[in-house]
Specification:
The chain is of the alpha+beta class. The chain is about 30% helix and about 25% strand. It has six helices and eleven strands. A hairpin with a 4-residue loop joins strand 2 and strand 3.
């Protein structure tokens, strides 16, 4: 899990992502992956195939959302369920959607680690409803970023989260307890930039544009956040 930053290729990066998923969500069950028989009928780029094989049917931790998957996003940017992947006339696959549907993510089929593009209404201040830009030079990096962001921001994927500035102050004072596990500065996608830290071995911290988001799931991490929020 802590090798996300040091990974040098798609295989190593997906290994590290799988380790993070088990670290945060607990041991993986065989039912969490898409069956190989089903995957073998599809032409997918390597990182997507790895992801769906490992966590394509992994449920939200919250029982209320048991019919949905942790990566699809109840109200945020989301990867598509395998059933919804759509091949475009130009050969790219549509695999990702902005939470309001203003733009979509595309990548190339059958490649080791292709780029990711976003296409649609990319600037709410613009009248241009159809633009396209590259969001990431490697799909594996985009998938890591998405899984970290949906873990930090999706309410069903954690117990407690907060922007409170008291947490940021404490974090800056205790940097010896923080380990940077991911850098998404080169991801050209709204809200997906910045850095991710593991703090006190229990808390995920997303630092972006001077703001800090703190997320905990394990009891120790949740208790630390609650304790800081109760301080004057």
């Amino acid at each position: 899990m802590l090798s996300l930053l040091s990974a040098t290729n798609a295989s190593e990066r997906m290994d590290a992502l799988e380790a993070f998923i088990e670290f945060w969500y607990g041991p993986r069950l065989p039912s969490y992956g898409e069956p190989e028989e089903r995957l073998s009928r599809l032409v997918l780029p390597y990182p997507l195939r790895r992801f769906y094989a490992f966590a394509g049917r992994m449920p939200y931790p919250e029982e209320f959302y048991a019919e949905d998957f942790f990566y699809t996003g109840m109200g945020g940017h989301h990867l598509y369920d395998l059933d919804l992947l759509e091949t475009q006339p130009d050969g790219r696959v549509l695999f990702f959607n902005e939470y309001q549907g203003d733009w979509k993510g595309l990548t190339l089929l059958g490649e080791d680690d292709p780029p990711v593009w976003i296409e649609g209404w990319l600037d709410i201040n613009s009248d241009r409803r159809h633009e396209i830009r590259q969001a990431s030079d490697q799909l594996s990096k985009f998938l890591v970023t998405h899984c970290l962001m949906t873990t930090i921001y999706e309410d069903a994927n954690h117990e407690l989260t907060s922007w409170d500035p008291r947490l940021a102050t404490k974090f800056k004072r205790d940097l010896e307890h923080a380990v940077e596990i991911w850098n998404a500065e080169d991801i050209n996608y709204p809200w997906y930039g910045g850095k991710v830290f593991l703090f006190r071995e229990q808390i995920l911290v997303h630092q972006s544009k001077g703001q800090f988001r703190f997320t905990g799931s394990r009891p120790e991490g949740v208790a630390w956040i609650q304790e800081q929020l109760q301080m004057p």
